Amino acid sequence: MAQAILQRIAAGDRAAVQECLDKYGGLVWSIARKMLRSNEDAEDIVQEIFVDIWKNAERYDDTQSSETTFVAMIARRRLIDRIRFMNRRISADSIEDVTTEPFTRSDENMQLCVEAKEAAAAMKNLRPEQRQVLYLSIVQGLSHQEISDATGMPLGTVKTHARRGILQAREALGLGNLQDTKEASV
Amino acid sequence: MNENTEEIRLDLLIKQAVYGLTEAEQEQLDDLDIQHLNKHDESFARTAAAIALVGVDQKDAMPAALRSKILADAYELYDAREKPKNAEYEVENNSAVFTPAAAARRPFWDWFGWAVAAAAVIVLGINLYTTRLKPNEIVKVQTPTPSPEQVLKPEQMREQLIASASDLMRVNVGAGNMKDMQPSGDVVWSNAKQTGYLRLTGLPKNDPGKQTYQLWIVAENQDPKTPVDGGVFNVNSDGEVVIPIDPKVKALNPKAFAVTIEKPGGVPVSKQEKVAALGKVETPKAPQA
To answer: What's the number of domains chain A is made of?
Structure first.
């Protein structure tokens, strides 16, 4: 089996850096643009994300997750920090744009990687409110309060949907067990 | 761990994955993991990452200029790992302190010095152990002789390059776009050795806490908008300074050398708004008919 790109990067293979950018550059760029909604901010942060990826390449464990998920996880960690630092507030104009979520749209041309397809399938099994809250928080980078403002849901309800939604998604993706955490499925 | 503590930990893990934690919350989670010997749980972070992939637009392509910057960053890190001895460079007697920009931006490699120190301690330990077993053996201790690299000053290294490089290029350097700065000097550069020295007089002192000088090489193999980073340096007194040029990536057939003023630590790509000094390579004029 071919060595993963990140393992080759950790081993000092310079060619793997270009391969990593070819494979994951668009992905990281897209995640950043979605969460920050600004190309200028995205440019700054994507550069930082890739520095994180080079530095954390040796941590990658192919028994724990796919390389794609690992890269997305590093990207999200940096993006969440940035959003918190920016103390961003979403404008009223953009609320309609961000509330259109992709999990239920029937776009035949939507090409998803295996991990994304599994996640999309897991999301379809959630209640619509849970799905919406997770989409707004994870894909669009909105805070509890912003989601509450955007959807009209009370803050506590937003938190509950996020918690139950991610617990169920985690179980559906085979990453954890609901019973372990004694979470009610209501 | 009791049920209540587990609930708190679960809440924190979910919040961390979905929205991020405040510093206090992160400390609380770390404490809980330490107290209860939990391995840090990344399952929620991985779940959130997988969900984030659903929103990815496969047609989205990273801008080419950004890709170039990221590649340059990666090669800097590789270079730092391969050439740790060059990570920090001090010039004592000519009043300039040179620090490659990468050194300020690569805390990841900081462990290297500690690793070297640890290795030295182990070697010393082995040495002490073996000498203890052989008490009658006479051990001659020689005072370590510093290597030439440690002793030579930048102006001496410059002279050495001039004497040894068969492909030496010399470029006159003058003022850039800043009216109040009129430096003059030159650059000597060897394409084969990929090294060179900038010698300047008239470059004002800078406040390292506010800004730094950064050297750039406009090279044949690089987009002129993103020249090769040659390192950052500070000037702390008047007079002539000699700055070693430390290209972060290969700089083939330089077309120009520039010194810009940047924020402390330097920048990966300069906007070239404040050019303190500039030297263009003169192309030979075609013979007149």
So the answer is: 2
One domain, residues A115 and A158:
yes
pLDDT over 70 percentage in chain B: 71
Beta bridge partners of B235: B96
Nearest to A161 by CA among A182, A147, A172: A147
Rounded Cα gap, residues B71 and B79, in angstroms: 12
CB of A130 closer than 8 Å to CB of A168: yes
Residue window 36-65, chain A: list those with CB within 8 Å of chain B. Answer: 43, 46-47, 50-51, 54-55, 64-65
Across the beta sheet with B212-218, the strand order is: B89-90, B96-99, B228-235, B212-218, B256-262, B275-280, B168-175, B184-190, B195-201, B241-245
Span A49-78, pLDDT tens digits: 999 999 889 889 888 889 999 999 999 999
Domains of chain B: 3-54 (no CATH), 70-105+153-280 (2.60.40)
The predicted-structure confidence for A114-143, as pLDDT tens digits, reads as follows 888 899 999 999 999 999 999 999 988 888
Which residues have a Cβ under 8 Å from the Cβ of A111 and sit 6 or more positions away?
B58
Asked if A62 and A51 sit in the same domain, the reply is: yes
Q: Which residue, A29, A36, A35, is CA-closest to A53?
A: A29
Contact A47 B19 (CB under 8 A): no
pLDDT band at B13 (very low <50, low <70, confident <90, very high): very high
Amino acid making up residue A48: E
Contact: B50, A118; criterion CB under 8 Å: yes
Q: Provide the ipTM.
A: 0.86
